[in-house]
Amino acid sequence: MQTISIKSSSSEKIIPLLTNALDREKRLIVGSLKKISEKIDSLAKSLSVDIDKLVAGEVEHTEANDMKLVELEGELKILRHLEDELKELESLEICR
What we know:
This protein is mainly α. The chain has a domain at 33-91. The protein is built from 3 helices and no strands. It has helices at 11-47, 51-55, 66-91. The chain is elongated. The mean pLDDT is 94.
């Protein structure tokens, strides 16, 4: 793990600000994850698609479902990206 230093003349004020900013960002990501998960579930249900099979490339794209499957795949990619961001934020530690 790497250390990032922030210089401040008033660390007693900056540390709570940084902590609050990190907590707020985590809450925003968690909210986004919830909304995206709901959208993914809805799309998968409307297409009668198993997500694991889609990710494995086992779902056939047809003219009738292609655009919705592309949308679903995009939402899955966003979900993974946000999960990675949340994981990184949760691993942060503010040292005093």
